[in-house]
Amino acid sequence: LIGTLHDETSDAQAHKLALEIGGQFIKFLGRRVIVSGSSSHLAGHFEEEFSDVLELPSDAQLSSSDFMDKRQIKVGEIHVGLETVPLILGPCSIESEGQIRQVAEFVKHQDLNFIRGSAFKPRTTPYGFQGLGVEGMQLIRKVADDYGLKVVSETRDTRDVDSIIEYADVIQIGTKAMYDYALLDRAAKSMKPILLKRGFGTTIQEFLQIAEFVLLAGNSNLILCERGIRTFESKSRFTLDLAGAIYVLHHANLPLFVDPSHAMGHRWGVSQLGLGALAAGADGLLVEMHPDPESARTDAAQQIDFSMASELVRKSRLIAEIDGRKIV
Ligand code: PEP
Ligand code: MN
């Protein structure tokens, strides 16, 4: 249940009442109160104390499209969601200044605004490249500033989240970190925009419930990202759940991005998959791109090169235009 306190109702009164009628969870966000509990008729008890009482049947409350219309969020001066559709390009890992400069130059030339690249990699094996760490973050920040670009970069765990908060414009929380509550909390409290990826073994309901943790912490600068789930299929790296993405577009009020790179796992299919997601209404794309993909130190098989990326940008603009949207 989400309600707004009447002017004459104090937080303390509302809290007491919520407890009396079986509210197990009570949280105030300004004059707004969120209550959940065992009573099936919570709303009936609150009409005198609250206005705009909205009883939602699931734990996806603040993220629900029943609660509010689709949110547009801001990353600095750039709007995200509704008619503006970010196409975020960049390598899986930050490897060198030369690599990031080439990427930034390309992105700027395409009239785009965001660059991706990570310095803390949550690798599947301890034997591979783990990322450049803080040095990598300083490097991408410097290059992005030279070109006036926004940085999306991944936090692996609470040991590195402060570096991401300091140097990135959007904090990416990956598929494996989606359940790290301390990380979610720290990222949420920074009030920076967050790009939250769906766990590869997570249902849409569970994904939205995790999003609630961030929203409840008072940070509504949240972007959701579908990046593929684990199924029996092995020809693609993961299975992009486009149906799930469309469910979120209909039922949640948050921007929903798609990462076709980790879902496909092979560069020859990444742009096609991304374009399909855009046609389905995705609010943005997160795509791995490398100046020399074959030599990439992580995810070499799935990173697209500059010529593939130019085609992707060109076609993305055409698809976005069908719905009166604009690639940024
Ligand atoms: C990434 O974006 O490079 C990444 C590790 O993504 P995911 O968390 O979706 O695997
Ligand atoms: Mn990657």
List keywords for this structure.
328 residues, alpha/beta, four-stranded antiparallel β-sheet, binds phosphoenolpyruvate, binds manganese (II) ion
Structural class: alpha/beta
DSSP helix fraction:
25-40%
Bound molecules: phosphoenolpyruvate, manganese (II) ion
Q: How many H/I helices? A: 10
Uncertain segments are none
- The radius of gyration is 21 Å
**Number of distinct beta strands:** 16
> What's the arrangement of strands in the largest beta sheet?
8-15-14-13-12-11-10-9
Percentage of β-strand residues: 15-25%
Order of helices and strands: EHEEEEEEEHEHEHEHEHEHEHHEHE
Major sheet: 8 strands, parallel
Q: How many angstroms separate the termini?
A: 36 Å
Question: Taking all residues together, what is the mean pLDDT?
Answer: 94
* Morphology: elongated
Description:
Helix 3 links the parallel strand 9 and strand 10 (about 150-155). This protein has ten helices and 16 strands. With about 325 residues, it is of the alpha/beta class. The relative contact order is 0.13. The chain has helices at about 10-20, 95-110, 135-145, 160-165, 180-190, 205-215, 240-250, 260-265, 265-280, 305-320, and strands at about 1-5, 25-30, 30-35, 50-55, 75, 80, 85, 85-90, 115, 150-155, 170-175, 195, 220-225, 255-260, 285-290, 325. The two termini are about 35 Å apart. Manganese (II) ion (MN) binds near residues 92, 262, 288, 298 and 299.
